[in-house]
UniProtKB/TrEMBL annotation:
It comes from Massilia eurypsychrophila. InterPro entries: Acyl_CoA_acyltransferase, BioF2-like_GNAT_dom, PEP-CTERM_FemAB-rel, PG_Glycine_Bridge_Synth. This is Peptidoglycan bridge formation protein FemAB. Residues 178-309 form the BioF2-like acetyltransferase domain. SUPFAM superfamilies: Acyl-CoA N-acyltransferases (Nat). It holds the Pfam family Acetyltransf_6.
Amino acid sequence: MSSIAVSHIEAAPEHVTPQAAGGPLTVKLMGPQDKARWDAFVAACPEATFFHRAGWQRVIEQSFKLNTWFYYAEQGGQIQGVLPLCEINSRLFGHALGAMQFCVYGGVAAISEPARAALDAAADALARQLKVGHLEYRNMVAAHPGDAAWHTKELYVTFRKAISADDEENLNAIPRKQRAMVRKGIKLGLVGEVDDNVDRMFDAYASSVHRLGTPVFPKKYFALLKEEFGDDCEVRVITQNGALVAAVLSFYWRDEVVPYYGGGMPLARDVAGNDFMYWNLMQAAAARGARLFDFGRSKLGTGAYDFKKNWGFTAQPLPYEYRLYESTELPDNNPLNPKYQLFIKMWKKMPLKLANIIGPHIVRNLG
């Protein structure tokens, strides 16, 4: 747990489960000396994702000044499971403990059921100690099916699809109408290149989310992602005759590529900038050895959902799970909620420079 978290609240007590072999199973908080073996476990654990990596603790704490607890279960000196947690406490958006805020996937990643149970117990104890409204897990597969203490809601899906090493095969796999948009971008002379900083990417992203009426993340956040994850965090920029069109920040994980934050300038709509951008990324990822393209999370009923379906990807429901504590109903902090529509309309009209100043103070509480 970070120094920020320690100053905010005392750590939850260590949980110990006796084991017949290999000694006791203990749950501890990750310290600086544990990061290398934490990441070694995550790299080998089938359930783990890029969003379980230890580096997220530094990124989130330094970007948003939020409290985090990175729990791991250990037996006989070997890590058996991990659970990163982050707390958000906002008058406007509620008080929550999440696994993991700002990440589309999360929850317990473990190689044994005792480790999973011990980490669940640690999260439950911390949620009660913090008096949060709810605890949220963001697993790809429901971790507590049939457990009355946990609730799910149909809101998010993810889009994941295998790709090959052959560009022509990948292009032909894109449905005809969407493929025509990719070819339009190619014909209009769009090109992709990799930046070693987030400057141009931030400009494209900030312009895009402002048009959607969504608060922007701080530029520092993207810079820290790039700094922390190095070559596993790629910034790809699309230009036309030197003019910025679009950009995407992607994560590489095992044999997957995950385009995570992207956006386009107003010009992108006229030149099929976003279509070309994802195709250009797919080409580069395939050449790098990626064999799965994770198009990422989208909300049901949104334009992003339709865009990804048009690429021939099949929606895979994300059974996020919620355990209620101080709250009596499930959270509904998403732009489809009617109570946020006036805010969204006002935000779209706000000058971009002002929105970029105010936005980070709001978005830190959304997670």
